[in-house]
Design brief:
Number of helices of chain D: 10
Strand order of the largest sheet of chain D: 6-7-8-3-9-10
Chains: A alpha/beta (406), B mainly alpha (344), C mainly alpha (292), D alpha/beta (273)
CATH class of chain C: Mainly Alpha
Order of helices and strands of chain D: EEEHEEHEHHHHEHEHEEHH
Oligomer: heterotetramer
Number of strands of chain C: 4
Order of helices and strands of chain C: HHHHEEEHHHHEHHH
Radius of gyration of chain C: 19 Å
Low-confidence stretches of chain C: none
Distance between the termini of chain D: 28 Å
Strand content of chain D: 15-25%
CATH architecture of chain C: Orthogonal Bundle
Shape of chain C: globular
Helix content of chain D: 25-40%
Distance between the termini of chain C: 55 Å
Largest interface: A-B, 51 and 48 residues
Low-confidence stretches of chain D: 1-8
Mean pLDDT of chain D: 87
Radius of gyration of chain D: 19 Å
Number of helices of chain C: 11
Number of domains of chain C: 1
Shape of chain D: globular
Structural class of chain C: mainly alpha
Largest sheet of chain D: 6 strands, mixed
Number of strands of chain D: 10
Structural class of chain D: alpha/beta
Helix content of chain C: over 70%
């Protein structure tokens, strides 16, 4: 009897597996999740250009992944609605990697099987860095909207630039250095402290660049505190910082933690100015206005600062149930612009879609891009990192307000 | 007489198993080489192999020894990092030396950690052992994250990930390891050493009173389990090319445990099947990714309530027995009783 | 000096939450020898309940607080009835894995239903902070410590003085004998879960006051640390859980205070290992020997 | 209390010239202030069958646990064939020649009957890990010999037919017999049986009595048994020690014990109350 049950259970599992298999036969691409709102676009007579969208669309970091996806799909849909590129529709092939490098690699290989021409992704640096070497080997054009680690485009061990890899976001060191410079030039800080999540490569990357730049600028870093993922109590670290008395506190983590840190710091009577990186976006929803007042962070996106951005915000809200786009959505949109512009260039050369020369042409197109995104105009340096200036956002009256370009 | 007929050393059986395995390797490998099996499927198959080693090695400690270590991912991490650091440094060595050496280093370092952790941990029983291994697993992760700041030079690169590890793991390498690990565990379990390990699971006091050095065998099984987890970690490092401590947390340990439990604690074939299914299933069910983890946990609870022994129980599968039934009249291996009727 | 006092209060505040959560672990372990891995996630559910009531439905904070405690209690009883009760005669390993499964399930369900990002919790209590020997102690910190201590005192009275408390102690001493003495074992176990989960509910509210966010994974690290606290104090012992909770809170504060905040988590687990090796039964735990 | 000469009792004439199988001198153990066994002086000769009786809670099983080193004695010494067993573990005591069965049966329930016996033969099989994994001829040879020996041992109790059954699936009496076989497989010089007849019917019990004698004669070992079935105890034991409140209150032949007033009091309670 028991044996029968177990056999039945095994059968169910296997059948489930087979059923899943049938659903994802090559040729039928994964359907975008319902909330992305990417309405299936009718394939035009001219065929399609397949673009992979890879990122953490479920799991702990899904909010970032989905924002990038929404932004990118918005532009892709716009291009498709306008007749596609060279009469060809763009077909997004969307796979989730949950932010896990292992899943990213398998999903990426699945995309290769599906015959993608280019890849927009992944979202987190770890997952992206796992995919890049394989994409480089296949010379597949790749652009990320949010993977900020320096190692994404550059292999320091072999002094090798991944020539196929581009991004629309800043790199970690850039933001850290910018904020150190800002602390010196604008805030006139003489001492600084830092508090970072030690397990988070993004936070650590920003912090290290900040600390190094501070040393260069003559700002004394009096405290360098860390915490672990999942920590909610930072008062012990903040008490230390308070005892050392820093002018500015660099806090380059994700906004949920940053909000708690600022709130607890104010409870302890710390009055220093808080500074952060682009992970701060949306922080105003998580902490009280008076606690945040005067804090600054650098970002690639200043909400409502230009007519283009205002248009983007309106369109985005119309498409996604009134949601307000953040930096990730904007950069996703920009990444799609840069990538599709390069594809346009390749198409105009009359190359066969998806061929190796075609992909090389797309990469070439991105390298020499002159695309103008909503956050900035793009051009790339020798490491394929975008040359653009940072936006400084200031917290004023509980609002995240564009302060200046820096 | 029946017994003897069954237990005659039959090198033939081993040769058949080996031949079948080699055929499997050659066929799949040539399919991969000819792109009949695409890069994607190759990756999934390699992951399945790595997960099989992880599940089978944990099964040694959980299913056979009857302990519940919750820090298996820690051993995997130690193996992965040590082998990755070696492989990066040893790029000058020819591959046929560097690769096996890297695997051995990964396994050995993990085994040493298993020994260091096992000696104190195995003094405790049941829940306490689970807790202490959980603690050790987390400490390993914290150390990997922060060791560079203590040492003052870059070893693990902490949160920034250990990158650009030579991607040496191939289908062939993975499955040769799978075969060796399964073979070693299988043959050990069918010897006095294996029986001693099982007796500890069944009743430690009785085992002790049968003259079995329980501490010795517990440590041995634990170290072996850690060693193979380290080998799996090494393969994983060479598979992915990038390592981050956060990928080896408590959750990873639980993931491996789920494979073992669903397969049936104490059943190697159960571990192999569930590692295969649980690796392939999420890939196949990409469309339902949202519900995947919820379904996972419900499955785990349901199995525990309705079939606590796992899908395969403690049933162990023997290829040659299957062969014996189907193809030839070879006597079955000793895993299950031979009935009188079979003994013609 | 003021820094030292601040750090002590920091430790006491987080320690009192750990202690409340550790009590739940300890009581459940005492009665059915189960490491209820899902306990931390009950807190997470409690926090979401409070968030839905206060932020979504716009009800007054007091309603949210009550709802969180009641919600946690009901959830605890349900989990016991659905998942643990059928396994009472099974090996402990099965029970433990089921608990892990429940924990997994609650976390993933929350992620699915509520989304991965954190929800911002509106203020539940507010008041003036206290300045003490140059150290700032926030109102929330004081409330947290006071409420936690009161809860623990009430719990101790409940367990020591009431009939149900006696039944709990009897069942944890010897389930079969207790049954023979006419104690309803099932009811007692349910009551224990209800009590432990209610404490988790209080813990959830205090946690939400101090750290005003609800996220799907908030319970896992909290649970793990509270669990370490329970083991440190002696799992199964109520005063032990309190001592352990405060000890872990203070340990974390002092590890950070000496500038080793990076190693805080490592220190907690190192303490766990040391305790298990030196005195596996913890500070207040009883020795349970196997009868041969 | 004057120390008695441990040699004076319970050692048959025929064994006087040999080292006793076991010799306990003032053995005692406390559990957290509670004295469970005290001043346990006991000597058992070679090939002797002796009984340890006493009311429930008298400390009989504790004595077994002391003899098998499950507990380390708080005081006193214990000599096994003249060797001091100080600091020995249970496993070492077993290898030194003590095997036992358990009051609450402790078989390896999920394993086959044959495997249970093979585990008893653990230290009789001389195969190292490498030989086992590489499946060298020595492995096959040793395994074959061990299996043959296990079947021989099972045949004592006529259990060869159930060799492939799970131990846990056997009826109660058969489980008790299997425990004895497993203990014998460890090649002991002293066999401790903890209530071997518990739960057996009279015919099974008398069969067991026969078998205990048979075992002693076949293996030339000493046997010490705890038993409540007085027919069995009086029927096969050559010497009996009576334990009450952790102390030996009487020692002697079955006849002497039957008429000992202390023993009668311990079993029936003090008269005149």
């Amino acid at each position: 009897m028991k044996k029968l049950i177990s056999i039945a259970l095994v059968l169910v599992l296997v059948l489930g597996a087979l059923a899943g298999c049938g659903k994802t036969e090559p040729g039928t691409t994964a359907t975008p999740s319902a909330d992305t709102g990417a309405n299936a676009t009718a394939p035009a007579a001219g065929g399609t250009i397949k673009i992979g969208l890879l990122g953490c669309y479920t799991g702990e970091y899904a909010q970032y992944g989905l924002a990038v996806q929404n932004g990118a799909l918005m532009y892709i849909d716009k291009v498709n609605a306008a007749g596609g590129i060279n009469g060809k529709q763009i077909e997004p092939i969307i796979y989730d990697d949950k932010g896990d490098p292992t899943e990213a690699v398998t999903a990426f290989n699945r995309m290769l099987d599906d015959g993608v021409t280019a890849l927009l992704g992944s979202v987190l640096s770890g997952a992206t860095m796992a995919v890049v070497p394989e994409a480089y080997a296949a010379n597949l054009p790749m652009i990320t909207a949010s993977a900020t680690a320096a190692g994404v485009t550059y292999n320091e061990d072999e002094d090798l630039v991944y020539t196929n890899m581009f991004r629309t976001c800043f790199i970690d060191p850039f933001q850290g250095e910018k904020m150190a410079q800002y602390a010196k030039d604008i805030l006139g800080a003489r001492t600084a402290a830092a508090i970072t999540e030690t397990g988070n490569d993004y936070a650590v990357g920003l912090k290290e660049a900040f600390v190094a730049k501070c040393a260069e600028l003559g700002i004394e870093v009096v405290a360098d505190e860390g915490y672990s993922k999942g920590d909610k109590d930072f008062k012990s670290q903040l008490t230390n910082i308070n005892a050392k008395g820093a002018d500015v506190i660099f806090c380059p983590n994700y906004y949920e933690d940053d909000a708690l840190i600022v709130t607890q710091a104010r409870q302890l009577g710390i009055t220093a100015t808080f500074m952060g990186g682009d992970g701060w976006a949306k922080v105003s929803e998580y902490a009280k206005a008076e606690d945040l007042e005067g804090s600054v962070y650098c970002s690639a996106y200043a909400p409502g600062s230009t007519p283009e951005i205002k248009q983007f915000e309106t369109d985005y809200a119309a498409k996604y149930n009134g949601e307000v786009p953040g930096m990730f959505a904007a950069l996703g949109y920009d990444a799609a612009i840069v990538l599709l512009d390069a594809i346009k260039a390749a198409e105009s050369k009359g190359l066969e879609t998806g061929s190796d020369e075609y992909k090389a042409a797309v990469i070439d197109g991105m390298k020499n891009t002159s695309s103008v995104g909503i956050t900035s105009a793009y051009s790339y340096d020798e490491f394929n990192n975008p040359i653009k200036s940072a936006v400084i956002i200031k917290l004023e009256g509980g609002k995240e307000v564009f302060s200046q370009m820096f | 007489m029946i017994k003897q007929a069954r237990d005659i050393p039959t090198p033939v059986k081993y040769l058949i198993n080996l031949a079948l395995f080699i055929i499997f390797l050659v066929v799949v490998n040539s399919m991969i080489a000819s792109k009949t099996i695409s890069g994607y499927y190759t990756k999934v198959i390699m992951l399945i192999g790595i997960n099989i080693i992880l599940a089978v090695s944990l099964n040694l400690a959980t299913g056979y020894l009857g302990q519940l270590p919750l820090g298996h991912a820690g051993f995997m991490a130690v193996g992965a990092y040590s082998s990755a650091i070696f492989m990066k440094a040893a790029s000058a060595l020819p591959m046929f030396i560097a690769l096996p050496l890297g695997l051995m280093i990964g396994g050995t370092v993990a085994g040493i950690f298993g020994f260091i952790i096992g000696i104190p941990a195995l003094r405790l029983r049941g829940d306490y052992l689970a807790i202490i291994t959980l603690g050790f697993g987390e400490i390993i992760r914290v150390i990997l994250l922060n060791i560079d700041s203590v040492l003052g030079f870059n070893l693990t690169y902490g949160a920034a990930s250990l990158k650009n590890i030579p991607k040496t793991t191939t289908f062939l390498g993975t499955f040769i390891c799978v075969f060796i690990v399964c073979y070693v565990i299988h043959t050990m379990m069918k010897s006095r050493h294996g029986r001693a390990i099982l007796s500890i699971r069944e009743n430690e006091i009785a085992a002790e009173s049968c003259g079995i050095k329980t501490t010795y065998y517990k440590t041995m099984a634990f170290v072996m389990s850690a060693f193979f987890a380290g080998v799996a970690g090494s393969l994983y490092a060479g598979y992915l090319g990038i390592l981050n401590p956060s990928n080896f947390g408590f959750m990873k340990s639980i993931e491996i445990l789920v494979m073992v439990v669903l397969g049936g604690m104490g059943s190697m074939i159960g571990s192999v099947i569930s590692a295969t299914v649980l690796t392939a299933l999420p890939e196949l069910l990409r469309a339902f990714a949202d519900y995947r983890m919820v379904a996972y946990s419900l499955l785990l609870i349901a199995v525990m309530i309705f079939k606590p022994s796992g899908l395969m129980g403690t049933y162990d599968f023997s290829l040659s027995r299957l062969l014996g039934k189907g193809l030839s009249r070879l006597p079955a291996r000793n895993a299950s009783p031979a009935r009188k009727g079979d003994d013609r | 000096m003021s820094t030292v006092i601040s750090q002590i209060f920091n430790g006491l505040q987080s320690g009192s939450v750990y202690a409340l959560v550790a009590l739940g672990y300890s009581m459940v372990y005492g009665i059915i020898m189960l490491l209820n891995f899902a306990h931390g996630d009950i807190i997470m559910v409690g926090a979401y309940v409070a968030w839905i009531m206060i932020a979504k439905a716009g009800l007054p904070p007091a309603v949210g607080v009550v709802a969180a405690v009641v919600g946690c209690t009901l959830l605890g009883i349900t989990i016991e009835k659905v998942a643990y009760a059928p396994l009472r005669k099974s090996p402990r390993l099965s029970l433990l894995i089921t608990a892990i499964g429940i924990s997994f399930f609650l976390e993933n369900l929350a992620q699915l239903v509520m989304g991965a990002g954190a929800k911002s919790m509106p203020e539940i209590v507010s008041g003036p902070g206290l300045s003490f020997a140059g150290a700032n102690i926030s109102f929330v910190a004081m409330v947290t410590i006071v409420v936690a201590v009161i809860s623990m005192v009430l719990l101790t009275i409940l367990v020591q003085r009431t009939k149900m408390g006696k039944a709990m102690r009897a069942v944890s001493e010897d389930m079969d004998s207790a049954r023979l003495m006419g104690i309803s074992v099932n009811r007692t176990i349910s009551f224990t879960f209800a009590l432990g989960s209610a404490l988790a509910g209080i813990g959830a509210v205090l946690y939400s006051c101090a750290y005003p966010q609800a996220s799907p994974t908030m319970g896992s690290m909290l649970g793990l640390k509270a669990f370490v606290a329970a083991v440190l104090g002696g799992i199964g012992s109520i005063p032990g859980a309190m001592i352990g909770g405060f000890a872990i809170g203070l340990l974390e504060a002092f590890v950070s205070a000496v500038g080793l905040s990076v190693w805080k988590e490592g220190a907690v687990f190192a303490i766990l290992i040391l305790v298990l090796l030196i005195k596996p039964t913890g500070i207040m735990g009883r020795v349970i020997t196997e009868k041969v | 209390m004057p120390r008695r000469d441990p040699h004076e009792t319970l050692i048959p004439e025929r064994d006087k010239d040999k080292t006793p199988a076991i010799e306990c001198i003032g053995l005692g153990i406390d559990f957290g202030g509670l004295t469970a066994v005290d001043d346990f002086n006991f000597t058992l000769g070679r090939t002797e069958i002796a009984g340890l009786i006493g009311p429930n809670g008298a400390g009989k099983t504790t004595v077994f646990n002391l003899l098998t080193k499950v507990y380390q004695p708080t005081r006193g010494r214990m000599l096994l064939e003249g060797r001091d067993t100080k600091n020995m573990t249970t496993a070492q005591a077993n290898r030194a020649g003590i095997a036992r069965t358990f009051q609450n049966i402790r078989l390896f329930k999920e394993l086959t009957v044959l495997d249970n016996v093979l585990i008893g033969l653990h230290n009789e099989i001389h195969v190292n890990l490498a030989q086992a994994i590489l499946r060298l001829p020595s492995y096959w040879r040793c395994e074959r010999v061990a299996r043959e020996r296990a079947m021989d041992l099972l045949s004592i109790f006529d259990m060869t037919g159930v060799a492939d059954k799970k131990a846990g699936s056997l009826p109660y009496g058969a489980q008790r017999r299997l425990e004895i076989v497993r203990a014998l497989a460890t090649n002991p010089t002293l066999l401790l049986l903890d209530e071997p007849a518990a739960g057996m019917n009279p015919s099974e019990t008398s069969e067991l009595m026969e078998n205990i004698r048979k075992i002693r004669d076949m293996f030339q070992i000493s046997i010490l048994l705890i038993e409540h079935d007085m027919n069995l105890v009086m029927g096969i034991c050559e010497g009996i020690a009576v334990l009450n409140y952790g102390r030996i209150i009487a020692k002697g032949t079955p006849e002497e014990i039957k008429s000992d007033p202390d023993v009668i009091e311990a079993y029936l309670g003090k008269k005149g109350h």
